[in-house]
Amino acid sequence: MQKALLFINGVPPKKLPDTDGYSVIACSDGAFHYLTSNGFPLDQLDFISGDFDSHSGSDEMLYAEKFIYTPDQDKTDFYKSLEILNEKGIKEVDVYGGSGGEMDHFLGNLHTAFMFKNELKITFFDEHSKYFFAPKKIVLSDVEGLLVSLIPFPITSNVITQGLNWELSGEELSITSRIGSRNFAVQDTVEIRYGDGDLVVFVGRERYR
User: Is residue 191 within 8 Å of 149, Cβ to Cβ?
Assistant: First the structure.
């Protein structure tokens, strides 16, 4: 499966991820700056997309051939980066810099991921968790003691879990009434199934139990 590593302009990771195993490595406009300041090997980037209204330094000149100019102001840089990856035949994308900072950006990034959920398997990573739109049935491995939150987007029916401390057995979750936040895994493997709607799953990085 073709897999991409994408950096976007949220809070940058404290430690840059390993780049092995990715067929494409890219960043959006603003993320180029934090990659540069954190010593990321820019020659590994396959492309940088955006409108480049803040680029004028020597690195920009050195890697000018990697820049893909995407000036459409009706789309975010994240959206435009995903469009490019989709056109390249990528099927799976790991995203860093999708959360933190101004929360409307975070929610906007979730909305963008929702728009591409049928074309791309998108997983966000930050200092606290990884999170993604889950398929109708998913098995999480090596998660005992980790936080697991289930957030409907906006309504998810017939949610069934196995391996969580507070199990769900066919309940409906709704963003306006009941959500499934702050649960945790009591088994090494957790199974989640649901019916109609969409579900965002957050898996913590620190074992609490």
Answer: no
Q: How many residues does the chain have?
A: 209
Record the tokens describing residue 144, joined without a space.
């005992």
- Identify whether the C-beta of residue 198 lies closer than 8 Å to the C-beta of residue 155: no
**And the tokens for 39?**
């010593």
pLDDT at 56: 54
Distance of alpha carbon 122 from the chain centroid: 5
Three-state secondary structure call for residue 64: helix
**CB contact at 8 A, 138 and 190:** no
Question: Can you tell me whether residue 187 is helix, strand or coil?
Answer: coil
From residue 186, alpha-carbon distances to 76, 128, 136, 167 in Å are 39, 19, 21, 10
Tokens of 108: 């906007």
CA–CA distances in Å: residue 79 to residues 13, 50, 75, 139, 143? 20, 10, 6, 28, 30
Tokens of 85: 């990856």
How far apart CA 105 and CA 77 sit, in angstroms, is 11
Q: Which amino acid is at 194?
A: Y
pLDDT, tens digit (0-9, with 9 covering 90-100), for 80-127: 999 999 999 999 999 999 998 788 989 999 999 999 999 999 999 999
